[in-house]
């Protein structure tokens, strides 16, 4: 009965693309369709996106992988902590997004109207 918003922002913290997912789904499942067709130099994410398939895809693209590792990973990958600090931009975007009650409370009943509201709020955030 919950909804997750999987979002991708640019280097300035502006929304590039997002996907709505059921609340019980793993975040990493919808990453491939989220990044499909986009070119970028680096992918910064938290532990929820620590997946061998995602990392392999990013390596194929030639993107720098900056993903915090799960503690259970047998061979930890190197993490550039200076670049990882920029992950705050996506967190800031979600904080700004949740300032709008309709987003925070998931007031819209359908995915279509909820998506439209996210686009509208992202445009308002970008225009500030």
Automatic annotation (TrEMBL):
Superkingdom of origin organism: Bacteria
GO molecular function: DNA binding; transposase activity
Stored InterPro entries: Transposase_11 (IPR002559)
Domain Transposase IS4-like: 2-124
GO biological process: DNA transposition
Coiled coil: none
The protein, known as: Transposase
UniProt organism field: Acetobacter aceti
């Amino acid at each position: 009965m919950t909804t997750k918003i999987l979002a991708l922002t640019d280097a300035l913290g502006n929304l590039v693309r997002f996907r709505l997912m059921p609340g019980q789904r793993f975040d990493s499942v919808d990453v491939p369709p989220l990044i499909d067709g986009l070119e970028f130099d680096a992918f910064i994410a938290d532990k929820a996106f620590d997946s061998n398939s995602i990392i392999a895809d990013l390596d194929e693209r030639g993107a720098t992988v900056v993903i915090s590792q799960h503690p259970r990973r047998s061979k930890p990958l190197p993490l550039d902590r200076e670049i990882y600090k920029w992950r705050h931009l996506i967190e800031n975007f979600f904080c700004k997004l949740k300032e709008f009650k309709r987003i925070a409370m998931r007031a819209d009943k359908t995915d279509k109207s909820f998506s439209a509201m996210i686009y509208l709020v992202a445009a308002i955030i970008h225009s500030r």
